[in-house]
Amino acid sequence: MLPTITVANEKGAYTMTDRGTYIKYSANHDGNPPLKVLVEGDEILFNQYSALAVNPEKCPSAKYDLAGKFIAWMAKPDTQKAIGDFRLLGKKLFIPNAK
What we know:
Strand content: under 5%
């Protein structure tokens, strides 16, 4: 993604990127990047990470029990807090939303 942002800047264009890439891009420019965020927080831009267990009937070699444990761990309040507290170069990277 960083090369994409660089090319967009060189061409006077727009691009879309994830928060982590933009944080790194900004840091590479001492916190004053040439390209600025124009739109952030719009529901249509929601980029959710999900954890899904593979159906063992469709993939018998899948470790369904371990996937279930991982999913349960990811949804725990303390794990969600750790996700929410995670920072990249001092800036919040993820917004936990396990229900």
